[in-house]
Amino acid sequence: MEQRKISRAVISRLPRYYRYLGDLLEAGVERISSSDLSKKMHVTASQIRQDLNNFGGFGQQGYGYNVKYLYTEIGKILGLDRCHNFIIIGAGNLGQALANYASFERSGFILKSLFDVNPRLEGVTIRGIPVRMVDELEDFLKNNDIEIAALTLPKSKAIEVADILVDNGVKGIWNFAHTDLSLPKDVVVENVHLSDTLMKLSYNLCQQDKE
Amino acid sequence: MEQRKISRAVISRLPRYYRYLGDLLEAGVERISSSDLSKKMHVTASQIRQDLNNFGGFGQQGYGYNVKYLYTEIGKILGLDRCHNFIIIGAGNLGQALANYASFERSGFILKSLFDVNPRLEGVTIRGIPVRMVDELEDFLKNNDIEIAALTLPKSKAIEVADILVDNGVKGIWNFAHTDLSLPKDVVVENVHLSDTLMKLSYNLCQQDKE
């Protein structure tokens, strides 16, 4: 299928479609109409049709969407049809919380190791995956094909570690450290600020009060 | 100041402005031009001017933006000028990671307690804040004015706990449990799916490969 240029707004909604379709697939649902999907996802049916038409109109009149096909196609667009090796730098609470999400593996994200500076964590495993010391990081990267690194370490260390990662071939940084990274243009950085969603919640509570 | 109706897209960018302005304030910066703010935030200066004009044109020609004023005004819009008491349900890794973000307090989010079902966590404190057992939750809510609850517990328990929260006056749910909650319309729910940002990273890596 020839892929058209897709707007950023549509792209940002794809992970959500992917999750819902995954749930449907797990529940044994084979097809779904845009109006049923609309009720489930709390978006208008016309938004769903518009969004999914971007990928060449997978829906069929009177039949609806083939759940498995749509799930697979969206997965391909998101690059989930191939495996991504990733590591987590910072094995504190957040790092360990991420390491415990077994569902990443289902989407092709394979956690290879965690790294920390705390000697008490040396040799600890999480779901069988070992925590290594940061001084082993460079060697580890040279001997393993790691595409993505999650940064769940204090911001004072993030910039230094990011440089080591990039110098050793890491192409994507999932950045939970609260700092901006200045990296080469071909490195993809996704900054995650958990507090942003809390502020949005606060804003919506204020709006609620006004009504 | 009379508040105009602000689009959702602008609202979703406000937490980011708030963060950057907070950093500037901490660094002792008193004013900033839209072009300097633009360079720092990697958005166009015209986008910044457009966004901030929504709040009545705080910028002044030849002077730029007064950082403290803008920070305060955006804080007000986000409802951060008053305190929000909140609790965390689920004191596992993710719950503890959230409890350790002291910076929430600076934005007016006051963590009052964590709750868990694991008896080994009873009496544990995080930054001086106690973990209580979930069977104490209802009493606690009756005796404390809690506005927001973060759900960092397994999805099998989330729906049941959310009902207890809402029945006892909680108005906002910051939902990290991977499940949809059907709650009364006046309850604000902000669903957080960490994996969505990882999928977005994966998508951007794919696009990079194609270039």
From TrEMBL, chains A, B:
Quote the function comment for this protein.
Modulates transcription in response to changes in cellular NADH/NAD(+) redox state.
Subcellular localization? Cytoplasm
Subunit structure, briefly? Homodimer.
* Main location as per UniProt: cytoplasm
Provide the protein name.
Redox-sensing transcriptional repressor Rex
Report the record's Gene Ontology biological process terms: negative regulation of DNA-templated transcription; response to redox state
What gene is this protein translated from? rex
Looking at the UniProt feature table, which residue ranges are given for the DNA-binding region?
16-55
Which cellular components does GO assign to this protein? Answer: cytoplasm
Tell me the organism.
Answer: Mediterraneibacter faecis
Tell me the ranges covered by the CoA-binding domain, including all copies.
Answer: 80-180
Q: Which UniProt keywords apply?
A: Cytoplasm, DNA-binding, NAD, Repressor, Transcription, Transcription regulation
